[in-house]
Amino acid sequence: MPGRVEGKVAFITGAARGQGRSHAIRLAEEGADIIAIDVCKQLDGVKFPMSTPEDLDETVNQVQKLGRRIHAVQADVRDHDALKAAVDEGVAQFGRLDIVCANAGLGSDGARLDAMDEKTWRDMIDVNLTGVWLTAKVAIPHIIAGGRGGSIILTSSVGGLRGHANIGHYIAAKHGVVGLMRTLAWELGEHGIRVNSIHPSQVNTPMVMHEDTYRMFRPDLENPTVDDFAAVSQSMHLLPTPWVEPRDISGAVLYLASDDGRFVTGTTTVIDAGAMLK
Ligand SMILES: NC(=O)c1ccc[n+]([C@@H]2O[C@H](COP(=O)([O-])OP(=O)(O)OC[C@H]3O[C@@H](n4cnc5c(N)ncnc54)[C@H](O)[C@@H]3O)[C@@H](O)[C@H]2O)c1
Q: Which helix (H) or strand (E) covers residue 35, if one does?
């Protein structure tokens, strides 16, 4: 039986690990070839360990094991020319582009907005908002040129739909992603290109599974553990889970990328265990 995205090509940012790797594997399982980029190094202001070249190699191995092709490049979503080169090369190899997952993003230490320094603000906006725009910008001409339509999926967050104290730079960037999504949906609809944003609650990835997050969620404890974090994280959800798994988000990506979502555009898809109702 053909896969749900058989013969299509997907461009995925932040593909070395976490949700990006999961999207690459899920789309490859359903028949897509992958163009993958990730910065694969530690960026300023990020305290938890970021991805490595070995992580990106592992994504390559896993996609190839599924019998699909992958063009993987170390590139920063803030670098227009590097992004463009990666996508142009991938399209030259695989012949087309159908799906974009603008997934790369980071978390950094926050503060109240009146106390936040400008560098922390700008670094966040550059990666989590401008990087999403640049990802779409370098991909759109290829999808339009194919004449077959396509699907662009921008990763926001529950924090892109509601506020939260002390991480205003992240919240503003993720709300900005919704503005990008709604504008792109208007601009690209006539080409049959659908654009949607996805909004996960806490996901079990290295971005949240570290001590700084535990401390942010449990300021009442001196040395909070993952179990202390889990209790508060659970209390934010209606369903009995403290977090969701990357593959849960990939299921939403697959729906939006495939013909199952062929008339879905301009939407904010939440995968949040009920967090938005609380
Ligand atoms: N983990 C969560 O709880 C959660 C919840 C809601 C939304 N998100 C969003 O989901 C997306 C994926 O995050 P994740 O949970 O898989 O975390 P992750 O840290 O495991 O993966 C993020 C990937 O993006 C890459 N990246 C970061 N900055 C980059 C840059 N400038 N250029 C290229 N690549 C870069 C990292 O190297 C990393 O491999 C992010 O946009 C994040 O904001 C995460």
A: strand 33-38
Residue found by looking up tokens 């993952």 in the block: 226
257-278 burial: b if 16+ Cβ within 10 Å, else e: bbeebeeebebbbbbbbebeee
Ligand 1 proximity of 39 Cβ (cutoff 6 Å) = yes
Q: Which are the catalytic amino acids? A: 170
Cα–Cα separations (whole angstroms), residue 210 to 111, 182, 201, 230, 245: 18, 33, 16, 12, 16
Taking 3-state DSSP, the helix, strand and coil percentages for the chain, each rounded to the nearest 5, stand at 45, 15, 40
Asked whether the predicted pLDDT for residue 1 surpasses 80, the reply is no
Q: Does 199 have pLDDT greater than 80?
A: yes
79 CB-contact burial (10 Å; exposed 0-12 / middle 13-18 / buried 19+): middle
The CB of 127 under 6 Å from ligand 1? The reply is yes
Q: Is the pTM of this model over 0.85?
A: yes
- Name every residue whose Cβ is closer than 8 Å to that of residue 102 and which is 6 or more positions away in sequence: 13, 77, 131, 132, 135, 136, 152, 153, 154, 155
